[in-house]
Q: What sequence folds into this?
């Protein structure tokens, strides 16, 4: 089953996007996402696109493993509506709007304008997921009642009950993956494994197109060969290299201080071994497990890296590189590109090459929409 995710914009939008558009380890999920300002706009979009089902997510809801969550939803036993079902003794039954999944044919934008609903009184499961107000399910009882609307999801509950359908709560398997950022704060250590990977990852090549900027002073992340090919350009005189990965910055410094521009494969192999680099990435994210296992051998690793490298650099690269090391300046920073640009307004530079930094799980997890806007206003 394929279905879109409709996200209502808010202060924690980027954190939600990071965990929907990227999987546990930061690879793109290819998930269809629509960001809306209001729920009716989101529902209208989903219907207009011809979707049968959709997941609605409020900014601040984050997922530790998007692939596993999708699999759970696709196999979830429901009758058209899953949500955070709240059944307190002193308030009408409703769904918390942090996250719900629905059959779009059962609901309509006009639901938001209802003031009263009539439906069979709900009979709830005796068991709760936690506390005493989170039943596993509710079903229609024998007696009907009219209820004044205090939360828009009461209309959907009424429709389900009038159609003699169950309404089910998110089970604990889903709740173990899906969390809400109360006070707009990521739960501590929730993404520690991914953060450890991102801040210790080494990219030997770029998995996005490289652009030659040809400006005197550049700001750039350190991944792959982009910075290397830019620093040898005739007009480029100085570079500020900013990268969240300590391994990447250390590797770039090592190249700049010690490498003569030949046998990139051997230099990379030695650095990986001497520094116990676990997360070493090549130019292809689609390498099979067998291909990656083969590249753990010294000879295959060096041969592969040197073959790719030779296709990407000019024939006179070694001479150009050595000339650049003599005549030019590279300054290294283990920092977030957004933070660096925001905090270093006095530094003179001509251009920021962003690579995929703005569309990167780590950046989205650790930046707010306001920081993005401030960065865009200050970059050159």
A:
């Amino acid at each position: 089953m394929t279905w879109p995710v409709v996200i209502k914009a808010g202060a924690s939008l980027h954190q939600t996007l990071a965990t929907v558009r990227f999987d546990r380890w930061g690879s793109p999920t290819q998930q269809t996402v629509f960001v809306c300002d209001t729920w009716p706009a989101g529902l209208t979009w989903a219907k207009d696109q011809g979707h049968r089902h959709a997941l609605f997510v409020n900014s601040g809801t984050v997922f530790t493993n998007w692939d596993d969550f999708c699999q759970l939803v696709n196999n979830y036993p429901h009758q058209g509506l899953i949500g955070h079902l709240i059944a307190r003794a002193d308030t009408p039954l409703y769904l918390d709007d942090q996250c719900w999944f629905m059959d779009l044919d059962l609901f309509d934008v006009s639901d938001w304008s209802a003031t009263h609903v009539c439906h069979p009184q709900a009979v709830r499961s005796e068991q709760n997921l936690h506390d005493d107000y989170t039943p596993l399910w509710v079903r229609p009882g024998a007696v009907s009642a009219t209820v004044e609307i205090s939360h828009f999801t009461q209309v959907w509950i009424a429709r389900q009950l009038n159609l003699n359908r169950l309404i089910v709560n998110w089970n604990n398997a889903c709740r173990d993956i899906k969390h809400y950022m109360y006070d707009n704060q990521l739960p501590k250590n929730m993404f520690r494994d991914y953060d450890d990977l991102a801040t210790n990852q080494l990219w030997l090549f770029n998995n996005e197109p490289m652009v030659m900027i040809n400006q005197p002073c550049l700001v750039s992340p350190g991944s792959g060969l982009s910075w290397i090919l830019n620093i040898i350009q005739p007009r480029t005189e100085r570079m500020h290299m900013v990268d969240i990965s300590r391994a990447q910055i250390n590797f770039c410094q090592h190249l700049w201080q010690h490498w003569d521009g030949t046998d990139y494969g051997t230099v990379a192999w030695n650095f990986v071994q001497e520094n116990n680099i676990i997360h070493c990435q090549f130019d292809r994210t689609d390498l099979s497990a067998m291909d990656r296992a083969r590249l753990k051998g010294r000879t295959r690793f060096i041969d592969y890296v040197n073959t790719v490298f030779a296709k990407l650099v000019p024939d006179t690269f070694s001479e150009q590189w050595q000339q650049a090391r003599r005549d030019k300046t590279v300054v290294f920073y283990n920092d977030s590109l957004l933070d660096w640009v925001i905090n270093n307004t006095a530094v003179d530079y001509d251009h920021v090459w962003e690579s995929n930094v703005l569309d990167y799980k780590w950046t989205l997890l650790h930046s707010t929409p306001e920081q993005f806007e401030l960065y865009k206003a200050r970059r050159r």
About this structure: The two ends are 44 Å apart (CA to CA). The longest strand covers residues 137-148. The mean pLDDT is 93.
